Amino acid sequence: KQEVTQIPAALSVPEGENLVLNCSFTDSAIYNLQWFRQDPGKGLTSLLLIQSSQREQTSGRLNASLDKSSGRSTLYIAASQPGDSATYLCAVKNDYKLSFGAGTTVTVRA
Amino acid sequence: DAGVIQSPRHEVTEMGQEVTLRCKPISGHDYLFWYRQTMMRGLELLIYFNNNVPIDDSGMPEDRFSAKMPNASFSTLKIQPSEPRDSAVYFCASSLLGNYEQYFGPGTRLTVT
Known about the structure:
The structure holds two protein chains of two kinds.
Chain A: E1 4-7, E2 10-14, E3 19-25, E4 32-38, E5 44-51, E6 56-59, E7 62-67, E8 72-77, E9 86-94, E10 97-100, E11 104-109
Parallel strand pairs in A: 2-11
Antiparallel strand pairs in A: 1-3, 3-8, 4-5, 4-9, 6-7, 7-8, 9-10, 9-11
Chain B: E1 5-7, E2 10-13, E3 19-24, E4 31-38, E5 42-50, E6 53-56, E7 65-71, E8 74-79, E9 88-95, E10 103-104, E11 108-112
Parallel strand pairs in B: 2-11
Antiparallel strand pairs in B: 1-3, 3-8, 4-5, 4-9, 5-6, 7-8, 9-10, 9-11
């Protein structure tokens, strides 16, 4: 069974600092990996999707890397802003099914 | 497209009552997924459909839970009878193909008292 771990569970940084969120998974036979953002009481917003054949994916201030062989992914958020405060979830796909980590709750202080 | 639509957004019911949650996937998407999110267990896949056919229901917690997809634009998740431990946020998601990006609905927050 796929196990997904996200470290740290919570993170608080001053505005402008770069964020580094980590995700690890136990079964490297994944099809893809998706990073989501979830605001309190809201649904999930997809941020980035990395196919298993890719090493990284970028969108604006967000960059996600994938090392499938070691079972790791990292989400970088450059020059953080208070609006980046949310919970970030990592999810890996095996056989059409997504397995989620518990998330990293980020607070960006103004 | 309006995205994945779920109703109701909030549901409060008493233990023992039947609860029906509804989902409309994005038009043209062949896969539909039901998830449950709790503080204790995080996000868990309950069941998914391909072309209206249930493919994997191994995540459905008990026989009290059932899901149907009578057509390509509508799915229901039913809990009968409901129990307080069913209180959670239930999400529906859809994707064009099985291993493509999944798009999530806003969720239904269920409270069973």
